[in-house]
Amino acid sequence: MLNINFVPDDYIQSGECRRTNLMYLVLFAVVMAALGGVFMTIKVRQGALSAKEKLVNAKMARAKEAIKQFEELQTKRKVMIKTALTTAELLEPVPRSVLLASLTNNLPMGVSLLRLNVVQKGPKVANRVAVTNKYEQAQAKKAIAAQPEVSQERLLETCIDIEGIAPSDLQVAAYIEQLSASDGLLDNVALVESKEHEIEGTIFRQFKLTAMLRKDIHLTKEDIGGIRAKCERAFY
Predict the structure, then answer these.
(1) pLDDT of res. 79
(2) How many domains does the chain divide into?
(3) How far is CA 194 from CA 60, 79, 102, 179, 204, in A?
(4) Which of 49, 74, 91 is the last residue of a domain?
(5) Do 107 and 182 belong to one domain?
(6) Could you tell me if 84 and 165 lie in one domain?
(7) Using CB atoms within 10 A of its CB, is residue 212 exposed (0-12), middle (13-18) or buried (19+)?
(8) CA torsion sign, 89 to 95 to 100 to 104?
(9) Could you read off the pLDDT of 24-46 as tens digits, one per residue?
């Protein structure tokens, strides 16, 4: 049986064109939607990165401020330590006039002082033995951490250099003995040097001594008054 198509060819071609255009429009819409999604994703990521950048910048600003405050505190701490050390040097446990009076009171007959130097300084730190064992290192760290903190003012030592002349070494030895026993002011009195010295044809012994002021010394007003009175009596 013969099939006869009564639809015109122009109508068929027009329908195919419409279907093709519709397909193109659908594909275009899909591509534009994909591009829009990608664009929105990029914008969201940019916003997140911008927020993270602002957060990091804020943290850096706070860190800079904290470092600046720490440096200021360190500077103030150094100034305070320097002031404390200066104050400790000014507030001597024993007035120098009393110390000089004590040194003069104990002079044997014929002995004279030429020079006196009083200096406050920190104590000498002993060299630590190198520790190679890990267990010993840990024990050493624990021992150091367990030690109580001591202020710099309490660690100051008053060192005294004494220079004078005497008729003989016997008077020098007697002076050292009297300084070690009298008034309880001095400790570690030691002879540094003793040599001949001629003054106007007379031979003397020029000596140098070192001593340290006792750290635990506490003089009352009566003690200070007695030392000064004894010095005045010896002078007159």
Answers:
(1) 82
(2) 2
(3) 67, 43, 22, 17, 10
(4) 91
(5) yes
(6) no
(7) middle
(8) negative
(9) 888 988 999 999 889 899 988 98
Q: Which amino acid, one-letter code, is at 174?
A: A
The whole-angstrom separation of Cα 53 and Cα 48 is 9
CB atoms near residue 207 (< 10 Å)? 24
The b/e string for 129-157 (b: 16+ C-beta within 10 A; e otherwise) is eeeeeeeeeeeeeeeeeeeeeeeeeeebe
Contact 111, 171 (CB under 8 A): yes
203 in Cβ contact with 165 (< 8 Å): no
Q: CA–CA distance from 94 to each of 134, 143, 229 (Å)?
A: 46, 34, 16
Domain identity same for 19 and 57? yes
Give the pLDDT confidence score for residue 163 in this predicted structure: 92
Average pLDDT, stretch 11-17? Answer: 70
* CATH number of the domain encompassing residue 177: 3.30.70.60
- Identify whether 14 is part of a domain: yes
Asked if residue 30 and residue 115 are part of one domain, the reply reads no
Q: Does 3 have pLDDT greater than 80?
A: no
Residue 190 CA to residue 176 CA, distance in Å, equals: 7
User: Quick one: 102 and 212 in the same domain?
Assistant: yes
Span 149-155, mean pLDDT? 49
